[in-house]
Structures are given as structure tokens and as C-alpha cells.
């Protein structure tokens, strides 16, 4: 890890050309800070990326209610996570990059901020973090913890490195019983199974209200390809082209909806726009809308809407009548479908959901999500759902029931963390 530091700097410079946030405060990643050294007492919360930061939001709300006056040290690994995390800060809180996993960088981080506890969300575990926190007597707790079968086998192949890290955690609070069992196989001490924090995240009410206003102007239903990943957009566009080239009755079918795509990674917005244009479709970008999609884009059957903004997923789900789940059509493990269902947007998912296996299974059992074998079947199923499916409203209702049934993890997690919290 020490030898890789120059490569990390080069990677940050490359990423920074597409996302300027990666060029911000680079030295923090190596344990050098502009903030004055503190007298300690921080509750360190690590949320590596955007999804974890959204989960951190509901946890922090519950922690502040349970223990008023706590000061938060918030760390991230990605630019989108850090940008989202700014909204979670209160007076006295600090936000910096996560320390690179070398003993020296972690020691400087711990010495500078003197946290009383480290709370790590979901999966982000680094061996030197654990070792140095143990030396400094800083308890580390993995919360909202998940572990896929694939990740467990990868960790087992590096057991000499992973097992001491998992054994060194003070506690683990798992999402599901299956996650708990896999984490225990790696040596972790699992204290409880508390559910998924993301069920407690409430969609942005203003965005949902805006979506309803815009949707009144639409002449056709909207189908969303959410959190699309590299390679999947090609599958999707190939499927649309095949339907477009089909007999006239099928052409009418494909043109009977508006198509909206939101890539998972913002640095790919331009790439996806170019890919759509190369296939002969027109592109209408959210960044160019003023009061919703322009009228030409609404009337044009060959226009695809591109969601090229950050922090507006509730708006996109509110506009949509159903969503194809990105990451599930290539063997990438899927993306989180909880936010979609919380917005009342039914999900059509492919075969690869191992990163969110239980949430996907529960959503399917509840009728909030449908499972298909491939992209072609996903597009056809979604079209049938919004055009000819008498059960469309039933799927929407199932989404709301499913979301409501699984809330409460934030309060349970906050209560489990109380023994570790101190205030100055």
C-alpha cells in the first residue's frame, strides 16, 4: 500500500479531469490536514460513496436524536460521496477524505482527530485501519453490513489478510441473517441483524412533487433505465433497435413510451450521450431542461432522455412508471432498488443481484419487483407493464407496502451504537 501511493496520485489526477472533486484536498488522503489538531471525541463515520452516504444520513439523524451534541467526523472515498456528505454536516462536524491504508497515514488521521469510535458503513474495511485503531484503542463497528457470496469467497482466498481485519472489529451489525453468516465465516463478531438503513431514507418530497407536475404534461408513460453500467447501455440500445426494426405493430409498441436513462457514474454522462446519438437516437439531457423535458423531446419518438444530474433520483423515479435495474443485466451484482420502490416505481431486474440479494428477493416476493432473464425480456416486460398490464397500480401499491414493512433499522442501529458514543 505504501508503494502504491504514486499510482493513487496519478489515478486521482485522471479522475479529476472528469470529476473535479477528486482534486480537492488530495493530501488528506495521506493524513495531512489543514484543520488544527482537535481535542478528540469525534464519532468517525465512514461512508465511502454516494449510496453509503445516503444510508449515513438516516443513521446520523437517529444518532443525533439519541445522543444530542455528538460531533461527527465524516469520511468518504469518492467525489460523489463527499459532495452528498456536505449536506449532513452540522456546526462542529468535520469532513475529510478517508485515510489511505498505510500505518503512517492512519496513525496521522487518528492522532489528528482522536475519534472515540469508528462507524463504517456496509463493506468498506481496510486492514491497516483495523490494526491501527486497535493499537489506539478506538473501537471500530461495521454497520448496515453486507457480504455477498462472491465477496466472501474472494476474502477467503486472502484469509491471511482478511481474517485479522474482520476479527479486529469491535462489533458488526448486519443487514440480513445471510450477511451475518458470511461475515461470521470470515471471523467477524456479529452482534445483531438489524435490517437495512436504506429503507429508512425518505425520498425528496420536493422532487416527487416536481415530478408530478411535469408528468401531467406527458403524453406517454415513462420507462427508466436506472443506474446503468458500462456495457449494459449497449444491450439496452440493441434491444430497442431490434424492436424498432420489427413489424409496424411492434414499432408502435416501442414508441408508445418515453425512455429515460440515468448512468450509475456521472463521469460517463457524456459517453452515454454519445453512444445514444451514435445509434441514431436524439438525446434530451436533464441539464438542458428548464421546466421539464422540452416539448420537442416529448413529441419525438426517437428521443431518449438522459438524466445527467446528481442528487435527483427521486425526481427520475417520480417521473417513471417502471424502472430497469442497472447492474443486474451484466454480472455486476445489481444496484440498490430500495429508493425506487420507496418512490412507488416498480422495478424490472435481471439475473445478477448478488450484491443486494435479500432486498431483491423480498421485493420480488412482495410484487414490487419482477425478475427476468435478460435485457430483451426486461424491455418487453416493462413495456407490457405500463402499456397493457392491468396490475400496474398493484405493483405501485406493492412498492409502498414493501418499503413501509422494512423500516426501523436506523433506530435499532442507533440504540446498538449508544454504548460507544461519548461527547465532549
From TrEMBL:
InterPro entries membership: Glycos_transf_N, Glycos_transf_N_sf, Kdotransferase
Q: Which GO terms describe its molecular function?
A: Kdo transferase activity
What cellular component GO annotations does this protein have? plasma membrane
Q: Cite the 3-deoxy-D-manno-octulosonic-acid transferase N-terminal domain residue spans from the record.
A: 25-201
Q: According to the UniProt entry, what is the EC number of this protein?
A: 2.4.99.12
An annotated GO BP: lipid A biosynthetic process
Swiss-Prot/TrEMBL catalytic activity: lipid IVA (E. coli) + CMP-3-deoxy-beta-D-manno-octulosonate = alpha-Kdo-(2->6)-lipid IVA (E. coli) + CMP + H(+)
UniProt-annotated catalytic positions: 52 (proton acceptor)
Q: Where in the cell is it found?
A: Cell membrane
Report the pathway entry. Answer: Bacterial outer membrane biogenesis; LPS core biosynthesis
| Function description | Involved in lipopolysaccharide (LPS) biosynthesis. Catalyzes the transfer of 3-deoxy-D-manno-octulosonate (Kdo) residue(s) from CMP-Kdo to lipid IV(A), the tetraacyldisaccharide-1,4'-bisphosphate precursor of lipid A.
Q: What is this protein called?
A: 3-deoxy-D-manno-octulosonic acid transferase
Amino acid at each position: 500500500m505504501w508503494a502504491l501511493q504514486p499510482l493513487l496520485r496519478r489515478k486521482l489526477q485522471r479522475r479529476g479531469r472528469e470529476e473535479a472533486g477528486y482534486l480537492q484536498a488530495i493530501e488528506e488522503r495521506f493524513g495531512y490536514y489543514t484543520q488544527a489538531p482537535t481535542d478528540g471525541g469525534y464519532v468517525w463515520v465512514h461512508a465511502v460513496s454516494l449510496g453509503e452516504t445516503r444510508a449515513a444520513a438516516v443513521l446520523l439523524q437517529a444518532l443525533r436524536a439519541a445522543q444530542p451534541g455528538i460531533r461527527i467526523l465524516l469520511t468518504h472515498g469518492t467525489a460523489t460521496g463527499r459532495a452528498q456528505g456536505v449536506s449532513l454536516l452540522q456546526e462542529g462536524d468535520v469532513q475529510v477524505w478517508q485515510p489511505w491504508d498505510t500505518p503512517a497515514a492512519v496513525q496521522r488521521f487518528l492522532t489528528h482527530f482522536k475519534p472515540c469510535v469508528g462507524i463504517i458503513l456496509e463493506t468498506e474495511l481496510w486492514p491497516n485501519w483495523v490494526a491501527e485503531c486497535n493499537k489506539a484503542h478506538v473501537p471500530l463497528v461495521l454497520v448496515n453490513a453486507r457480504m455477498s457470496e462472491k465477496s466472501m469467497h474472494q476474502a477467503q482466498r486472502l484469509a491471511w489478510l482478511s481474517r485479522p481485519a474482520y476479527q479486529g472489529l469491535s462489533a458488526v451489525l448486519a443487514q440480513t441473517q445471510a450477511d451475518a453468516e458470511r461475515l461470521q465465516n470470515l471471523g467477524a463478531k456479529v452482534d445483531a441483524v438489524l435490517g437495512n438503513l436504506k429503507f429508512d431514507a425518505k425520498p425528496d418530497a420536493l422532487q416527487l412533487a416536481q415530478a408530478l407536475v411535469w408528468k401531467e404534461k406527458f403524453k406517454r408513460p415513462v420507462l427508466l433505465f436506472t443506474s446503468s453500467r458500462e456495457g449494459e447501455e449497449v444491450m439496452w440500445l440493441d434491444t430497442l433497435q431490434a424492436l424498432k426494426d420489427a413489424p409496424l405493430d411492434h414499432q408502435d409498441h416501442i414508441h408508445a413510451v418515453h425512455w429515460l436513462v440515468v448512468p450509475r457514474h456521472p463521469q460517463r454522462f457524456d459517453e452515454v450521450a454519445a453512444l445514444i446519438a451514435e445509434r441514431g437516437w436524439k438525446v434530451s439531457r436533464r441539464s438542458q431542461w428548464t421546466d421539464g423535458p422540452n416539448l420537442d423531446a416529448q413529441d419525438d419518438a426517437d428521443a431518449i432522455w438522459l438524466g445527467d444530474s446528481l442528487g435527483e433520483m427521486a425526481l427520475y423515479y417520480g417521473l417513471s412508471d417502471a424502472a430497469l435495474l442497472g447492474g443486474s443485466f451484466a454480472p455486476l451484482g445489481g444496484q440498490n432498488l430500495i429508493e425506487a420502490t420507496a418512490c412507488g416505481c416498480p422495478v424490472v431486474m435481471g439475473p445478477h443481484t448478488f450484491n443486494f440479494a435479500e432486498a431483491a428477493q423480498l421485493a420480488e416476493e412482495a410484487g414490487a419487483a419482477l425478475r427476468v432473464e435478460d435485457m430483451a425480456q426486461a424491455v418487453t416486460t416493462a413495456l407490457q407493464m405500463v402499456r397493457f398490464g392491468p396490475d400496474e397500480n398493484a405493483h405501485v401499491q406493492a412498492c409502498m407496502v414493501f418499503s413501509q414493512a422494512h423500516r426501523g433499522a436506523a433506530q435499532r442501529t442507533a440504540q446498538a451504537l449508544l454504548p460507544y458514543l461519548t461527547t465532549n
